[in-house]
Amino acid sequence: MSVTDEFIKSENLIMYKFDYLVFIGRFQPFHLAHMQTIEIALQQSRYVVLALGSAQMERNIKNPFLAVEREQMILSNFSLEEQKRILFVHVVDVYNDEKWVKQVKTLVNGVIEPNSIVGLIGHFKDESSYYLRLFPEWIMVELDSLKDSISATPMREAYYRGEIQTEFFPVGTIRFLDEFKNTEVYAELQRKYLIDDKTNLN
């Protein structure tokens, strides 16, 4: 039996609790607590579905990175084998819980196999995490201890001041943020941040 056959056999013997674990977030930017969550999800599930929030084609100082850029940023932190097990759906902002939940379910159902065991992984960090309760048909995997429950808001603010807080980011994110700083988009975001302009970039 070849090494490849041995690997495939060992992969098939892994008993995952879930077929898919859904992880909802904006990942603006992708930090160590996000990465820890995905690593835990990959241990428990065959696939992880990342539902990227605020996925409409617009940028502002709260949502600086487009969905495709966030996909690139996230995947750069994982091996090729792990990347094959990470799926993405793009969730646009809908300020109505019922419509938003329907959108998330429809998108997720579009990338999973029928009759799968699906769970939702997340961390109740504050009152903004209430949405985790809106999917009762998905088995909840609640995480207690993450990397100090870090928030991306102060990381973005530091980034607009020209600082990449490397202690909070995996290597792929650091590389992405460093390269993004050289773009005209970053310069425009930085300008808006300095005058507290929350409107979208043109």
Briefly, what CATH class?
A: Alpha Beta
How does the overall form come out from the CA principal axes?
globular
Average of pLDDT: 90
Number of helices: 8
Order of strands, main sheet, comes to 3-2-1-4-5
CATH superfamily: HUPs
CATH architecture: 3-Layer(aba) Sandwich
The CATH topology turns out to be Rossmann fold
Low-confidence stretches: 6-10
The count of strands amounts to: 5
Let me know the largest β-sheet: 5 strands, parallel
Order of helices and strands: HEHEHHEHEEHHH
Fraction of residues in helix: 25-40%
Count of discrete domains: 1
Strand content: 5-15%
Keywords: Nucleotidyltransferase, Transferase
InterPro entries: Cyt_trans-like, Rossmann-like_a/b/a_fold
Protein name: Cytidyltransferase-like domain-containing protein
Pfam families: CTP_transf_like
Any overview of this molecule?
By secondary structure, the protein is α/β, with parallel strands linked by helices. It has one domain: HUPs (Rossmann fold, 3-Layer(aba) Sandwich). The chain has eight helices and five strands. A five-stranded parallel beta sheet has the order 3-2-1-4-5. The protein is globular. Residues 6-10 have low confidence and may be disordered. InterPro entries: Cyt_trans-like (IPR004821), Rossmann-like_a/b/a_fold (IPR014729).
